Amino acid sequence: MRRVVVTGMSSITALGDDWTTFEERLRAKQNAIRYMEDWDIYEDLITRLGGPVLDFVKPSHYSRKKVRSMGRVALMSTVATERALTDAGLIDDPLLTSGDMGVSYGSSSGATEAFKEFGHMLINHRADSLCANSYIRMMAHTAPVNIGVFFGMTGRVYTTSSACTSGSQGIGYAYEAIKYGQQKAMVAGGAEALCATQAAVFDTLYATSTCNETPELSPRPYDEKRDGLVIGEGAGTLILEEYEHAKARGAKIYAEIVGFGSNSDGKHVTAPSAETMQRALELSLDCAGLPPQAIGYVSGHGTATEQGDIAETIATNQVFGNEMPLSSLKSYLGHTLGACGSVEAWASINMMLNNWYHPNVNLVNVDSRCGELDYITGGGKEMENEFVMSNNFAFGGINTSLIFKNMS
């Protein structure tokens, strides 16, 4: 069994891409939710709220040939990966193309613009909207494949297209690939590009927020007056590396991954189960060889949906008791779907290193049906922790839990 460490990190988010800017927004309790005027063309769409990344542009050194197979989700994934590789000191390293480094990355779907091209064909019986890259931009594995091709990587590729656990499974499977000696290093993470179709998915389930006139007050994870989730976008990449390899090359080490648990409910596609959520957390602790009291903070999934919030917090309470500090990054960014697991892992590691943990925005009164926990509010919480946990739960009853160790 090999030890696995994080040697590079990067995120693209609606609150900013660097930790200094991101933390300033967290401390100011400024969420990134806004009214999406572009969605007004959809007459029957109930929600008009989203968490867009407004300042993302294609880097000037990316040639047309390099990006022609990329939609927005693949482009954000590749840019986040380039920054993380640079952070890790591996951007020009022979390891990239040696076959000893792979990609484990996911998104809920590919580029929805490409879906329109195929939709045109099916509806109008014409294929004139299609091009050679239509499928490449649309396919579920567009993010990891484009990352691999862009950097000439020849190691294994895992596609983790599992909705809200795409990013966390990407990290978890990368961890396992290194732990069991299949690769020396991995690009790991997830991404999502914002689209009205994603909001429509949750509209059909009556699970979206309708606070269209007051976007700054939504979403409200764990609050008794929450009215649903808000969709966001972004990308997050972690560079994972075998510990001895990282140490030998003098790499800086942010954290060690010591636990990963994943399972499924096996009951219902959209109704979560507190029982199997609890088991996923226990599997992560078992993997790490840690007792529950070793964990100092839990990054909650916290979508601001009734069933999700209640099941998650009951599961967390059953494992840790009623004093576990917990907060949800989705209160700031909205639900970034395929990106949330990786962005929340990035934030959890940074908070662990800086001894400060963000509050839940818009949490006024905790829903009495939620499990009893230390829901962080106000100005956040200062703590020194050796271990933190980051949890995510997805459609299909897919549950994930990651544990990070402070190496500072």
- Spatial strand sequence of the major β-sheet: 5-4-6-8-1-9-16-15-10-11-13
- What separation lies between the terminal Cα atoms? 22 Å
Strand content: 15-25%
- Summarize the helix and strand pattern as letters: EHEEHHEHHHEHEHEEHEHEHEHHEEEEE
Shape: globular
How many structurally independent domains? 1
Largest sheet: 11 strands, mixed
Roughly what is the average pLDDT, rounded to an integer? 97
Question: Might you state the CATH topology name?
Answer: Peroxisomal Thiolase, Chain A, domain 1
The H-level CATH homologous superfamily, spelled out, is Thiolase/Chalcone synthase
Q: What is the number of beta strands?
A: 16
Low-confidence stretches: none
Number of alpha- plus pi-helical segments: 13
Please state the structural category: alpha/beta
The portion of residues assigned to helices is 25-40%
CATH architecture: 3-Layer(aba) Sandwich
CATH class: Alpha Beta
